[in-house]
Amino acid sequence: MKINNETKIGLLAIFCVALLFFGFNYLKGKSLFKKETHVYAVYENVQGLTKSNQVIINGLQVGSIANVEGDKDMKEILVTVNLTKDVNIPSNSLAVINPNLLSMGNSVLEIQLGNASTYLKAGDTLITSLSGGAFDAALKLINPVLYEVRNAVKSLDSVM
């Protein structure tokens, strides 16, 4: 049985469109074959958090931000968290947005685990808290240096 050229070109076109679809979704960070869990967080200020930013627990990336959308008067901003790893998150865990100074201003959503015996299920909402921002993060890095400078000045003063 001979397949004519129009059929071959049609099959090739269908294959290319499917490959484009899967490749585009892969580049957007969507997992096609893994089970994903969505939980939500509500903020007044997202501090530069955008779609596809990292979600970390104890320094390990466990997911990404699936969507950030606000209501009409922008008093509450709903953040959809896409968890790609199967983790047990206690129901009293805290979701904090941390501006990451090392990655050129990209914010990350850090989940600080609580100690509750019940765990979040798909569709539940995390407890949120505002972080201090980039200034507080820089101040934490500078504080140990200032402490050493103060000690050096005290020792110089006593020597003089």
Tally the helices: what do you get? 2
What's the shape? elongated
Termini Cα gap: 101 Å
Instruction: Please compute the radius of gyration using only Cα atoms.
Output: 24 Å
Quantity of strands, as a count = 7
Query: What is the oligomer described by this structure?
Result: single chain
Strand content: 25-35%
User: Largest sheet at a glance?
Assistant: 7 strands, mixed
* Helical/strand content category: alpha/beta
Question: From N to C, what is the helix and strand string?
Answer: HEEEEEEEH
Query: Percent of residues in helical segments?
Result: 25-40%
Note poorly predicted spans: none
Strand order of the largest sheet: 1-4-3-2-6-5-7
Overall pLDDT metric: 83
Topology:
Blueprint: H1 5-27, E1 37-43, E2 54-57, E3 60-70, E4 77-83, E5 94-99, E6 107-112, E7 127-129, H2 134-159
Parallel strand pairs: 2-6, 5-7
Antiparallel strand pairs: 1-4, 2-3, 3-4, 5-6
Task: Describe the structure concisely for a colleague.
With 160 residues, this protein is of the alpha/beta class.
Textual characterization of the structure:
With 160 residues, the chain is an alpha/beta fold. Helix content is 31%, strand content 28%. It has a seven-stranded mixed β-sheet with strand order 1-4-3-2-6-5-7, with no helix packed on it. β3 (60-70) and β4 form a beta hairpin. The termini are far apart.
Keywords, please?
alpha/beta
